[in-house]
Amino acid sequence: MMSEILGYEFYHNRISDYLLCLAIFAGGVFLVGIVKALLTRRLKSRAAATPTHLDDFVLERIRRTGVPLAYLGVAEASLRVLTLTPHLERIVNVAGIVLMAILGTLFAVALVRFGVMEYVRKQGEDPSRDRVLKAAGSLLNILAWGAGLLFMLDNLGFKITTVMAGLGIGGIAVALAAQAILGDLFSYFTILFDRPFEIGDYIVVGDHMGTIERFGIKTTRIAGLGGEQIIVSNKDLTDSRVRNFKRMTKRRAVFRLGVTYQTPAEKLREIPGIVADIFGGIDGATLDRVHFFSYGDFSLIYEIVYYVDGNDYTKYMDIQQAANLRIYEEFEKRKIEFAYPTQTLYVNKA
User: Which CATH number describes the domain made up of 189-244?
Assistant: First the structure.
């Protein structure tokens, strides 16, 4: 009696075939559940012991992508023991392709989001940069979903080569028409990731100088020294030599002074020591050298080189002013005269 029931055929399959299908599905679901529990427990303990976020990402992807794919494989394997009609088999294949495309796209989107978040964590908070990164992440998500859609249509038998060719020609036309905009856009991402300067940095580029106010997708705003706003395209910035004074840890300063030719040799030898003593009493400045540099047209020229700690221009000017005043005072005490442009006329009476 039991063998007759199991041998009864229903929709081209025996009852035993349906029971085998259910057994394979139930066993596969049970096995996937066990593997999921073991992996989850092990990865949870590992993720709690490590400071990185990669373990958490892998654990989340196993839950949201790996497990559904495993269930899909179990369902596919269990249905293979049945004899399906062509129409029903087509439905099963289409459903499998659609689910695989969706799960693959979700994985790609999650990977992009994880990469963006990790970059933000390492670089620190920056509202303007974070806003643009979110926009770039949204664009990448759109591209990922577009690629997933094309993959699904291709596997479903649609001819997408013509569509791809049309998109390629259209993309080339758009790229040629928007070449300048795309150049600024790529330069923006170069600035964003290479970070040659930050908002608030004082830079000099070409004939322009000032403090970075903000940089956008196409242009960068610079607050000039005169109070004006200078707008420079991103491509011009990346194509130029940018001098970033904000990142200067030590400023090298050079200046010269001239004394008269009537200064005695003994006092000329004293000048390097006088300057050295003066800089020894100025905080934040380190004297490098003092040398009798050359004979000028109307003066004996000394060259002084020193370093200022930090990049504060006001501090540098305060130190230079203090050094100039002290040099003037010391020279006045020692009767050392500064030179100024003079001409001496010698008259020879015959």
Answer: 2.30.30.60
